[in-house]
Design brief:
Blueprint lengths: L3 H9 L1 H22 L9 H6 L1 H15 L8 H14 L5 H17 L5 H31 L7 E11 L4 E8 L13 E6 L9 E6 L9 E6 L11 H8 L6 E5 L15 E6 L3 H11 L6 E7 L8 H10 L3 E7 L4 H5 L5 E2 L4 H7 L6 E5 L2 H13 L7 E4 L14
Helix pairs in contact: 1-7, 2-4, 2-6, 5-7, 6-7
Length: 409
């Protein structure tokens, strides 16, 4: 437990962290990777370059300072991050390295403002926060390893099948290389792929991908969008390697399923699954699972057009076979073939008025995933359409972020 004086000092730094948080976390990563380049084998380089990891850490540090006297308030955030850490292989020995460089970054950015008293208080606070993470992650590691078919860290899987789902999305089917049982998972969870032999790459690359089918005890399936170079954004190293190099019969190291963005079994409310682009993957896992129930479900997916729309046939088949499931498709720029074959229900963008017309139950639980801009727009549209904020669940691909509240709310 922290002394009250330490708590008071930490809370006094909240305004400073709000102003300088991202500068501190940017400096933190630069210092840590300079002194410990081996950690570049764990962290996602793309998220570093885009600044998303720095923003996510700044948000976490700010929340930790704000709620240092009631850390239970940030337990959901701790749990979400702990899932990521467990799936990446973060261990207790990594935390002292992080703590050391976080304090160095605070000193470097705040300079004279980082008094000895403040640094000492943050050292104590970090110890408490790190212990919380280590405790939660220890339980996750043990549960993962001890479940039927479970394993520790990463295990070799063989690629059994590769399917081209659209112009830019491929599905990869994995089975354990040793023939062991496939560990169960919850609809909405993800796995980590560890790639150590990408040509031209000095470091190991670990990427997390949502499982795109329901639990089946036979295989894991992920569906990966090829990230091409565009508007100054470099091509995705891992996605292009998977699309262009990986073949059936190859082996990849995989971590056990993780993640807390999962379908809530104990809720009897109707469901709205809302996705954009490759954000369909966790939604599809949930939809496949819901196909085995009688729960009233509306599935809405947005894509640019039919050329890049994955799983059109799979979703339609589920829709036709289940009276309780209704699916809708929105194409921003449908092709002439899309129009001829009437492959979509709405042209342009999803709007609040359109959502009102297809959602009969405003008390539905919403699960949402897609690009950041898409989810922000959908968050605002859902609220305008009458959906309760507390009923909206969402997940970002990459570091956690928070959607902004609509200005008119």
């Amino acid at each position: 437990m922290l002394e009250q004086n330490t708590i008071d000092i930490i809370k006094s730094t909240v305004p400073v962290l709000e102003q300088h948080g991202e500068a501190i976390t940017k400096t933190f990563y630069e210092l840590m990777f300079n002194n410990h380049p081996e950690l570049l084998n764990i962290f996602n380089h793309a998220n570093q370059k885009q600044g998303r990891q720095q923003k996510a850490l700044a948000s976490t540090v700010y929340a930790a300072a704000k709620y240092i006297d009631q850390l239970e308030a940030i337990l959901p955030a701790v749990t979400q991050i702990a899932h990521k850490h467990r799936s990446l292989g973060i261990k207790p020995e990594h935390y002292p390295i992080v703590g050391e460089h976080l304090l160095l970054a605070i000193k470097e950015v705040l300079q004279d403002g980082a008094t000895e008293e403040i640094i000492d208080a943050w050292a104590k606070a970090y110890g408490v926060i790190a212990d919380a993470f280590i405790h939660v992650e220890k339980a996750m590691y043990e549960a993962t390893e001890n479940q039927p078919g479970g394993w520790k860290d990463f295990k070799n899987f063989k690629i059994e099948k590769i399917i081209q789902e659209s112009d830019c999305i491929k599905s990869f089917y994995f089975k354990p290389a040793d023939g062991s049982e496939v560990t169960n998972f919850l609809p909405g969870q993800y796995i980590s792929l560890k790639l150590t032999n990408i040509p031209g790459q000095q470091f190991t690359h670990i990427r997390q991908y949502s499982l795109s089918t329901s639990p089946n005890n036979e295989f894991y399936r992920i569906s990966v969008k090829r990230e091409d170079e565009m508007k100054g954004k470099p091509a995705g190293i891992v996605s292009n390697y998977l699309h262009n190099e990986i073949q059936v019969g190859d082996f990849i190291e995989i971590s056990a399923p993780a993640g807390d963005f999962v379908f809530e079994e104990n809720n009897d409310k109707s469901i709205l699954l809302l996705s954009g682009g490759v954000g369909i993957t966790p939604m599809l896992s949930m939809l496949n699972h819901l196909a085995d129930t009688n729960k009233r479900t509306v599935f809405v997916h947005a894509a640019i057009n039919g050329n890049v729309h994955a799983f059109y046939d799979e979703v339609k088949e589920i829709d036709l076979k289940n009276e309780s499931i209704t699916s809708y498709i929105c194409y921003e720029k449908p092709t002439s073939i899309d129009k001829e074959e009437k492959r979509f229900d709405k042209e342009g963008f999803i709007t609040a008025n359109w959502l009102k017309s297809i959602i009969s139950d405003k008390d539905s639980i919403v699960y949402m995933c897609g690009p950041v801009v898409f989810m922000q727009a959908m968050f605002e549209a859902l609220i305008e359409a009458g959906i309760k904020r507390e009923n909206i669940r969402y997940e970002f691909f990459g570091p956690a972020m928070k959607l902004k509240e609509p200005e008119h709310s």
